[in-house]
Specification:
The complex is a heterotrimer of chains A (270), B (640) and C (269). Chain B has 640 residues and is α+β, with helices and mostly antiparallel strands. Helix content of chain B is 36%, strand content 14%. In chain B, β7 and β8 form a beta hairpin. The mean pLDDT of chain B is 95. In chain C, a hairpin with a 2-residue loop joins β2 and β3. Classes of the chains: A alpha+beta (270), B alpha+beta (640), C mainly alpha (269). The complex binds flavin-adenine dinucleotide, protoporphyrin IX containing FE (HEM) and FE2/S2 (inorganic) cluster.
């Protein structure tokens, strides 16, 4: 716990920021002084201030992704001093406050790095690969209007709560950024588990996990090495237990799909 | 003068929607794929509409400025979503939800729309549950409910404190499914910068790819806007930083009427501003008011002292004092205004003097810290994260903040604006909440519009459009609109200014908050109407936008949005000035009951004010749509 | 077919193969250690056991082949997964690299794996193929005549009077060389570290791991790896330090007596 009314003196830091004008262009670190920083500023507000300063002298401001600034939209995505989303546990970049730093600190800011998240500019990357994975199977097929009464599908509270744990993923990509292999397993496992834990998700359970993993592989993410760096940086503290669950689900689906009787295969197929 | 035909169906209130559905024109299934529909927005309203229209067979093009539809501002809604399911057996019904919503809106919404909203609310919950939205459940596995402000029944469904997130992810999954099947063409990082009219009908949009700067034209048989609210006109708000009004504002400039812009909602329990650098205000759940006591020092001189050093006798529990029956649970707008009055008197607390205490000391001594922690632990954590203060030891500081905009583009019962072919859904339209929105009703409305209204009502328009009659995107209207966008961009980049965009946004926000915030006066609004045009001039002359148009350029994006906010802010003040009454979120100090409640003027203002653009520099036209209350009696809104 | 293709092509499939083959190897090295510890008994025990294995003939070959395939698949999967993962980081590496939760063992799987592989090749060359130290290879040593019936769990391995290879002496003579012994110790040390993460990890890969018992799993893996390492350390350690001396009358005993400080260079036959 931070002491109440902790020292409220403004201070200065040096920002060492990755600047890259565009995709496939050379990038480099550039140092910027950030002076007279209030400890109550958020990290992104500090970037705002630095950017206003850059604009005034005619430099291009640092491009960084952000939106809700309250840790729910998953847009913000800086690697601060080697840790995706920076200091703290269970928070996104936008929830980092400058009181986590001290006078004279050099703060190194890099984008989320992964081949599947190509860089757009400075600290902004393209995380479309996550959408592609969703499109491959991250849903329950139910046409609008076709749903039965909500209470006709009871869901054990425990399962619903667990599904909610998984569903709290904000799709920021920090798991990929933190993983030494740039693997997307935590993200995919969270979605697969949310839907797979509920009765509504059963009909498409096998198809879903097979399709989502396939798309994940095709997108160029790396392979999980069970080191759990992902869950350590997850702003929603989603557990890697879901990865184990997805592995099990995937393997079962793979075996089942291979040994299911083939519809229409007369004479036993051969 | 725009024609404002609400197209409200005749007949008994409860039968209107059924009757309308059977009477409106349909598009036959084989023809649906011949129609292309543009949907701008991927929030609750946009995603649900895109998915459903694609399921029906229409070809849908969905545009969002976000890098994924999942990031729309709907994601941030916390509390819950209302539905008249009556699962709690506590006497809820469609009619009761209808009535609560109408009354909550201070009788400034259309009866027919609100009733339809209440009717389809039940289908929304079914739909979302079937999609796998992990709603809170009871031990028996059935859905749980909580109660929310402005209602005497428990009808709010929720998913922890992340209901908006879960509903949006549900709609996004439905959308993703249709994208995967090829029914929806998804354009992310694509900001709509103009609406294209052909022969007076909305037939396309001009879009800038935010990553590459490419400007493209898109044509369609109809255009749907579901682009959210305009609360960021105040700069500081609980909205996401990128939420903006550009889509609706540019549509307004093409002739769509903007209705009731002055209806803005202010939420009483937000974390106060800490400095000039502030970019965002964070909402703290209202539930805190169940156990916290709100106070400020009695004496001005005490305002800067540490709260612990102020003796009980010198504290003013003003809500308990002024509203003895409701106390700390006084309605949102009432308690917001009271807090502001305290601060105006110089008794506000915190460094900026803009804050009041929300004190849990009593609750902690009554229930014990663990019980308080169990109820509000995560909120105390958020508070600690942002302020570094421990609310178990020292009172929280809270202050009201802009939270929602009830106004928006005018639409008829079919959700079509006064421009044929232009439909508006979700927070972007003005339709269902009147002058004030009840908690947990915005999510309901967004999904009602997208899942259950537009899929029917758009057919009525499309059936009148010959399949294949959609114009090509290379007509003169498209070229002109594209040119318009290009020149705006070039102008910004070429400007020889010195101040960043944020400078002007902050100043606009201050003017708006001061003169058109929680309490408005004729004099204040008139002042604002002087200041804003001056600010606009200064902005045009002095804004600095570095970089190029050919890459990601966030300054350029912001410049366009703030330019629109400045103009919208002016209209908002104009609307507030001309509405000489108080109702819901619009509080004119001149018009109040002795107890500080809103004093409506039903005789003169029971109407929708729909503003029509008349050209640059000209005063817009104020059209009105009378609100006829056939089925309910307009009464004084009172929660006592 | 489809199943095999999927197992070899997808990320989780490859991981599964890795876990499965790893599990087989864990089983093998455990059994192997237990077998080897018989060195501390009378020569009859280990020689009889070795004879029994030899006598399996084609079955032994099948087992060896299976183990080799496991190694091959394991190594192939390791290489394939690693290359994919390297590429997945993209064109630019992080300037600051930080570890947050990964165990130390897990960070060096590739390194420990490579050393184990090198050792494995040497080890096979040494004790199975006899090309590393042909001088002390079992076929170069005088044969051993069983003094007693050798039985394991009442199951006959070799009968009294059978003439069998003198594996007992081969091991003693082999480990009398400190270079060999130290390499062996380092390798089994790294193998233990490899298995420390490997055992924990394979449960995750198969999907049988959760917060409920992952702590216990880690402890079990740790205890197992320590025991495994100590067991393996015992053989060269005891031989090298002279704590274990070859039984009187064995060829190794004669040889080592002939050159008491037979520690430096390999014992010449
Ligand atoms: C903090 C907070 C808490 C809330 N809690 C609740 C609650 O508990 N219950 C409740 O009912 N309501 C709540 N609300 C209100 C509710 O969340 C919103 O009103 C609702 O989600 C709006 O949905 P929407 O689909 O209309 O718009 P949004 O979700 O804002 O979506 C707008 C979409 O339009 C796109 N867009 C906008 N402009 C353009 C453009 N020019 N070009 C291309 N795309 C564009 C965006 O990319 C985005 O996809 C809350 C609001 C806030 C701020
Ligand atoms: C022959 C040389 C070997 C190499 C090159 C090698 C390499 C590797 C590598 C790179 C991994 C993957 C680590 C990861 O992805 O996190 C791994 C995992 C593993 N290895 Fe090995 N290894 C070898 C031998 C062995 C042996 C002899 C055993 C058993 C005694 C073994 C047991 C395991 C186990 C159990 C795993 C875990 C599988 C999983 O992650 O699910 N390995 N090995
Ligand atoms: S900006 Fe939305 S999560 Fe950080």
């Amino acid at each position: 716990m931070v002491a109440e009314h902790s020292v409220k003196k403004n201070f200065s830091v040096t920002l060492r920021v990755w600047r890259q004008a565009g995709p496939n262009q050379p990038g480099k670190f550039v140092d910027y002084p950030a002076t007279d920083i209030s400890p109550d500023m958020s990290f992104l507000e500090m970037l705002d201030v630095v950017n206003d300063g850059l604009t005034k002298i005619g430099d291009e401001p640092i491009a960084f992704a952000h939106d809700c600034r309250e840790g729910i939209c998953g847009t913000c995505s800086c690697t601060i001093n080697g840790k995706p989303h920076g200091p703290g546990k269970g928070i996104a970049t936008c929830q980092v406050y400058m009181r986590s730093f001290g006078e004279g600190d050099v703060i190194v800011v890099e984008p989320f790095r992964a081949r599947a998240f190509p860089l757009i500019k400075d600290l902004v990357t393209n995380r479309e690969a996550f959408d592609k994975i969703q499109q491959a199977g991250g849903f329950i097929s139910v046409r609008t209007g076709a749903a039965p009464d909500a209470n006709s599908i009871p869901v054990p509270k425990e399962d619903a709560d667990l599904a909610m744990d998984a569903a709290s993923c904000i799709g920021c990509g920090a798991c990929v950024a933190a993983c030494k292999n740039a693997s997307a397993m935590l993200f995919v496992a969270a979605k697969v588990s949310q839907l797979g834990l509920m009765p509504q998700g059963q009909p498409e359970r096998d198809k879903r996990v097979l399709a989502m993993v396939k798309t994940m592989d095709e997108a160029g993410f790396g392979n999980c090495s069970n080191q759990y760096e992902c869950s350590a940086v997850c702003p929603k503290l989603i557990t890697h237990d879901f990865i184990a669950r997805m592995n099990r689900d995937y393997l079962a689906a793979l075996f089942r799909s291979n040994f299911k009787p083939v519809s229409g295969a007369s004479d036993g197929g051969a | 003068m725009a024609k404002l035909d609400s197209k409200t169906p005749s007949g008994p209130l409860a039968d209107k929607w059924q009757k309308h559905k059977t009477e409106i024109k349909l598009v036959n299934p084989a023809n649906k794929r011949k129609y292309e529909i543009i949907v701008v927005g991927g929030g609750l309203a946009g995603s649900s509409a895109s998915a459903t229209l694609a399921e029906l067979g229409y070809k849908v093009k969905n545009f969002v400025f976000h890098d994924s539809p999942r990031r729309a501002h709907s994601i941030a809604a916390q509390g819950g979503i209302n539905a008249a399911k009556n699962y709690q057996n506590d006497g809820d019904s469609v009619h009761r939800l209808f009535y609560d919503t109408l009354k909550g809106g201070d009788y400034r919404a259309r009866e027919s729309n609100v009733h339809r909203l209440a009717e389809v609310s039940v289908n929304i919950i079914d739909q979302c549950a079937a999609q796998g939205v992990p709603f809170a459940r009871e031990y028996g596995g059935l859905l749980a409910n909580r109660s929310f402000g402005g209602a005497q029944v428990s009808r709010t469904f929720y998913a922890r404190g992340q209901t908006g997130q879960q509903l949006l992810l549900g709609a996004y999954s439905a959308l993703s499914r249709m994208v995967g099947q090829g029914g929806v063409e998804l354009h992310t990082n694509s900001e709509m910068l103009d609406l294209v009219l052909v022969d007076g009908h909305a037939k396309g949009i001009i879009v800038r790819d935010l990553n590459t700067g490419a400007i493209t034209r898109h044509s369609a048989d109809a255009v749907i806007l579901a682009t959210g609210g305009y609360g960021n006109v105040f700069n500081l708000s609980t909205y996401a930083r990128q939420s903006n009004a550009t889509a609706i504002w540019r549509a307004y400039k093409r002739g769509a009427c903007l209705a009731n812009p002055c209806y803005t909602q202010i939420h009483p329990t937000c974390i106060p501003v800490s400095g000039d650098y502030q970019s965002k205000l964070t909402l703290m759940s209202e539930s805190l008011r169940n156990d916290g006591r709100i106070w400020v020092p009695k004496k001005k001189e005490d305002a800067k002292k540490p709260p612990a050093s102020i003796p009980e006798a010198d504290r003013d529990y003003y809500l308990e004092r002024i509203y003895p029956s409701f106390g700390n649970l006084a309605p949102r707008d009432v308690s917001s205004r009271a807090a502001m009055r305290m601060c105006d008197e110089g008794r506000g607390v915190g460094e900026t003097g803009l804050g009041v205490y929300l004190d849990f000391a009593d609750a902690i001594s009554r229930l014990g810290e663990p019980a308080v922690r169990e109820r509000y632990g995560n909120l105390f954590d958020i508070y600690h994260e942002i302020t570094a203060e421990n609310a178990y030891k020292t009172p929280m500081r809270i202050f009201p903040a802009v939270h929602y905009t009830m106004g928006g583009l005018w639409v008829d019962y079919n959700l079509m604006s006064n421009i044929p072919g232009l439909f508006v859904l979700g927070e972007a339209n003005f339709s269902d909440h009147g002058a004030n929105r009840l908690g947990a009703s915005a999510l309901m409305q967004g999904l009602a519009d997208g899942y259950f209204v537009i899929p029917y009502t758009i057919g009525d328009y499309l059936a009148g459009q010959k399949p294949g009659s959609r114009p090509k995107a290379d007509g003169a209207e498209f070229k002109q609109a594209e040119q318009n966008v290009q020149s705006m961009t070039e102008k910004f980049l070429a400007n020889k200014g010195t101040e960043p965009v944020s400078h002007f946004h902050k100043r606009l926000g201050k003017i708006m908050w001061e003169h058109c915030g929680m309490a408005r006066t004729k004099a204040g609004l008139e002042q604002a109407l002087q200041k804003i045009p001056a600010l606009r001039e200064e902005f045009q002359a002095n804004v600095k936008v570095p970089g190029s148009a050919a890459t990601l350029n966030q300054s350029l994006e912001q410049a366009g949005r703030v330019a629109d906010f400045i103009e919208l802010g002016e209209l908002l003040c104009r609307d507030a000035l001309t509405r000489e009454e108080s109702c819901g979120g619009h509080f004119r100090e001149e018009y109040q009951h002795p107890d500080g409640e809103c004093k409506r003027d039903d005789e003169h203002y029971a109407h929708v004010a729909a503003w029509e653009y008349q050209g640059a520099g000209k005063t817009p036209l104020r059209n009105t749509e009378p609100l006829n209350y056939e089925f309910t009696k307009m009464s004084v809104r009172s929660y006592k | 077919m489809n199943l095999l293709v999927s197992l070899f092509k997808t990320s989780i499939g490859k991981k599964f193969l890795m876990a499965l083959t790893g599990l087989v190897m864990v089983g093998f090295v455990t059994g192997h250690l237990v077998g080897n510890l018989q060195i501390f008994f009378q020569p009859d025990r280990i020689n009889g056991y070795a004879h029994f294995l030899q006598a399996l003939g084609p079955v032994l070959w099948a087992i060896r082949l299976f183990l080799l395939v496991c190694v091959a698949v394991h190594v192939w999967a390791a290489v394939a997964l690693t290359l994919e993962s390297r590429a997945a980081r993209g064109p630019e590496a992080y300037a600051i690299k930080k570890w947050l939760s990964a165990t130390v063992a897990s960070r060096y799987m590739r390194l420990s794996g490579i050393v184990v592989l090198a050792f494995l090749i040497y080890h096979l060359a040494h004790f199975t193929l006899g090309v590393a130290q042909p001088g002390t290879f079992k076929t170069a040593l005088p044969e051993w005549k069983m003094l007693e019936d050798a039985r394991e769990f009442g199951f006959p391995l070799a009968a009294k009077g059978d003439v069998v290879h003198d594996v007992y002496s081969m091991v003693f003579l082999g480990f009398a060389n400190p270079v060999v012994s130290i390499f062996y110790i380092i390798a089994v040390g790294l193998l233990s570290v490899h298995m420390l993460h490997g055992i924990d990890s394979l449960f995750q890969t198969i999907g049988w791991r959760s917060a409920k018992w992952s702590c216990l799993l880690r402890k079990v893996a740790l205890v197992y790896c320590i025991v495994y390492f100590l067991g393996n350390l015992a053989i060269p350690g005891a031989i090298l330090t002279g704590i274990a001396k070859p039984a009187v009358g064995t060829y190794a005993a004669q040889k080592l007596a002939a050159s008491p400080a037979a520690t430096s260079s390999a014992v010449q036959p």
